[in-house]
Amino acid sequence: MVEEGAYWLAWAQISGIGPVLLRRLQQHFGTLATAWNATKVELGEVEGFGFQTLEKVIQQRSRLHPEELFSKHQQENSHFWTPADADYPRLLLETPSPPPILYYRGEVELQENLGQKPMVGIVGTRQPSEYGIRWTRQISTALAKNGFTVVSGMAEGIDTESHIAAMKAGGRTIAVLGTGVDVIYPHKNRDLYKQILTSGLVMSEYPTKTPPDRTHFPRRNRIIAGLSRAILVMEAPIKSGALITATYANEFGRDVYALPGRVDDQPSQGCLKLLNQGASFILKELDELLTMLGAIPQVDTVEALPTAQQLILLTLSPELQTVMNAIANNDALPFDFIVQQTSMAAGSVSGALLELELMGLVSQLPGMRYQKT
Questions:
Q1: What is the count of structural domains for the chain?
Q2: Distance from chain centroid for Cα 240
Q3: pLDDT tens-digit profile of 126-171?
Q4: Which of 138, 222, 242, 364 has the lowest CB atom count within 10 Å?
């Protein structure tokens, strides 16, 4: 049996099929394996599949062999996740456009992927002022010391300062690239890149050896927003990629914070615009910011988290309870079987399972199988 991850890869090779359409396919058919074998008429029922897209699918699908493609891809790219993998970052999976393939290098920390360790994105201009640099360092240091992982894009300026400050404080940082994970850009950050690999993580939706391209970086910003609980914009002019990240954060339901500046400072114009649109202020009292972000306590004072068995006592919605009842025993059950047991639509079951995973009640196993935690 071909693993579901192979079908995420195969579908991503078809021109015109991007992350949003892939998400719709998965929700409509329950699995991309099922979608792969769907007829032209069945595919036409999915929103966004017009005549031209359907023609491309029919023509290109016949030339692709998911299992062979996946095996070859593994040889060329040793470390990657697909949304079918249990280790795929949960917060990113919640977004409407999760990357079908997410490549990584460095040290994986599963608590981050499972959403159990909070991540905060810090973005801003490539040409920050002394004011922007100072506050980026202070905030990144405070976040790292309070158990947050700092996420940024390894660009010059604010990104670089946030990565360095987080690591100097003994914390974790993740760099999301607009190149392959083996391509360092800008090249002047090669030492920073090497340092991140020793204690943090580098991610990208682009395969190895992918060079920088101006179209890649705006797309990469949605991953920064998707991974993060909140986005902090430190300094950004009106035309700034940081504002793109903030827009994605708003679309994904993330909190957006901006560092206020003087009205006549060019690097602060984008931040002032965000504040005018409802973003929260980053103020001098960092303790207040940390509280708002939900700072986790230090290890020596952390309280025990409730067990999955205790969480089950919480009142579930009827839909979630129905799915939970279908997997009440300890066996790992295939997705299709759960759909049959619940008599619910495949898309509804998929959404319920994801929510139960985030609650810690269910875990996903290889092959689209699910088991009570």
A1: 3
A2: 21
A3: 999 999 999 999 999 999 999 999 999 999 999 999 999 999 999 9
A4: 138
